[in-house]
Amino acid sequence: MIRPVPSHRPIGELISEAAETIRSANQIAQLHDRPGLLDADQLTDTVGALHALAADLPELFDRLGTFLSSEQAAGRLTPATPEVSDLDLVRTVRDAREQLGEASRIAAVLGEALALAGASLAAVGKPWNTAAVRGPDGGGAQPL
Q1: Who contacts 19 (Cβ-Cβ below 8 Å, separation ≥6)?
Q2: 126 — pLDDT class (breaks 50, 70, 90)
Q3: Distance between CA atoms of 142 and 72, rounded to whole angstroms?
Q4: Does this model's pTM top 0.70?
Q5: What span, in angstroms and rounded, lies between the C-alpha atoms of 120 and 95?
């Protein structure tokens, strides 16, 4: 479900919402030590969605690093406190760009791993679903 995002929304706000959504999903997965899934299709869909999320992270990290570089080149970055020298600021920005680059590389590996997990799940037959898990009364399916 892709919703149009108004262009005036700050990127930090959007990322905060995404983080909150992931936290909520994690909390649901912790309930009764069950991931809140009813069948293998839901697991496959979840892994696919995580792959889509991870696949876009490298580009985002690269854009953040590029923005940081352009802000520095334009002279729009200043030390946060008087104790921080201009040289310290240059080093700090360089370190931040390097860490964003590392995050980009790690996110790419994460995306690849999730793609492989999704491909593996495609081989899982549909009998691995709610039919195998019954409620306490032997009736309706319960989440895996």
Answers
A1: none
A2: low
A3: 55
A4: yes
A5: 37
Burial class (CB in 10 A: 0-12, 13-18, 19+), 61: buried
CA distances to 4, 38, 89, 125 from 23, in Å:
22, 20, 33, 30
pLDDT in tens, 44-81: 899 999 999 999 999 999 999 999 999 999 999 999 89
Tokens of 27: 């909390």
Q: How far is CA 98 from CA 68, 69, 108, 120, in A?
A: 11, 11, 15, 33
Question: Does the pLDDT at position 38 exceed 50?
Answer: yes
Calpha distance 14→60 (Å, rounded):
12
**Mind giving me the DSSP string for the chain?**
------TTS-HHHHHHHHHHHHHHHHHHHHGGG--S--SHHHHHHHHHHHHHHHHHHHHHHHHHHHHHHHHHHTT----SSTTS-HHHHHHHHHHHHHHHHHHHHHHHHHHHHHHHHHHHHTTS-TTSSGGG-B-TTS-SB---
110 in Cβ contact with 50 (< 8 Å):
no
